Amino acid sequence: MKRPVIWVTVTLTAAIVVTATLLIATTTRGENTSFGSSAGRLEVQTVASGLAYPWALAFLPEGRMLVTERPGRIRIVSPQGQLSPAVKGVPEVMAVGQGGLLDVITDKNYAQNNTIYFCYSERSGSGGRTAVARGKLIDGTAPRLDDMKVIFRQDGPLSSGNHHGCRIVQAPDSNLFVTLGEHYSGRDQAQSLDNHLGKLIRIAPDGSVPKDNPLVGRDGARPEIWSYGHRNQQGLAINPATGDLWETEHGPRGGDEVNIIGKGKNYGWPVIGYGIDYSGAKIHETTSKAGMEQPVKYWVPSIAPSGMTFYTGDLFPRWRGSLFTGALAGQMLVRLQLNGNTVTSEERVLQNLNERIRDVRQGPDGALWLLTDSSAGRILRITPAGK
Questions:
Q1: Active-site residue (options: 163, 183, 196, 230)
Q2: Distances from the Cα of 253 to the Cαs of 99, 120, 330, in angstroms?
Q3: I need a surface site. Which of 186, 228, 348, 375 has the fewest CB within 10 A?
Q4: Residue 259 in domain
Q5: For residue 182, what is the domain's CATH number?
Q6: What predicted TM-score, i.e. pTM, was given to this entire model?
Q7: Cα–Cα distance list, 208 to 175, 271, 288 (Å)
Q8: How many domains does the chain have?
Q9: Is residue 172 assigned to a domain?
């Protein structure tokens, strides 16, 4: 049964605060809430609510969306907010801690093959690991996955429910990039090439290893590895202006990073970094070291960056070319202004929304679409006021 459209009005009582970079103001307009920004007033529309910890959003060709819920469901959502029943055929997930059903994307040729890819926490023995699967989405009143197949399973010490990573991007050559966390307790494994912890991998759509991966043929190394020395990677996107792969990852207490990913490069965790342990103890040897890459941006204190997207639309012409990331601990949307590969400024938007932002995507309508991370999570549509 399709659910009715749900509209939620957010009422904010905080005083208007003026800073050097951003005016944050709130007014209520019917079903929407308005916020200030460098692009003018923004309207935040709640398209749907009542989702259980929604984690990822992917647009289907006709404007509907796939949304994952961490407990293990995929929903199809109309632009008006109608939710389908849970898609059948999704494998059982280990919904413990930060684990569960995580990212989802559509194949670049989805209109012809109806294929989707998703990653999730899979139980294995007494713990869990990140797995990647593919299947054909059969639409209708009872949507389901056909030909579902697990195409990759993470190898290495298991997770108790933390730091699964699990963002997927499909490159123009159809190969898949997938982020894999270091499971929190296995941080030293991020420097070890004989496992998949703390790695970014590159696999073909069927799960096979592309022959030009950097570690193919190297003794003792996993051939799927594209880059290593990562912690818990929560954002991944290809910059359409350059074709470069960009990534965000969580530091501990401080040291969240934005990185441009290079083939075979080492990003330093836990040897280098800008944070400290949750206990206050020192983790890193130093902040830089020969043979280890520096982030293009880092945050101290942490904001916990999440899903990310490069904006290319027409609704916000002043923001074209910017990189957007949600923030979980920071409870906001962050815009990074870029000049080539340099971050020139940062703007913090929607802070008075008081929501953990799990994912951000550009919709086919040019709007920014967000997921809020809670047991009653929402899908939000961000547009210029009056549009």
A1: 163
A2: 21, 26, 13
A3: 375
A4: yes
A5: 2.120.10.30
A6: 0.91
A7: 10, 31, 34
A8: 1
A9: yes
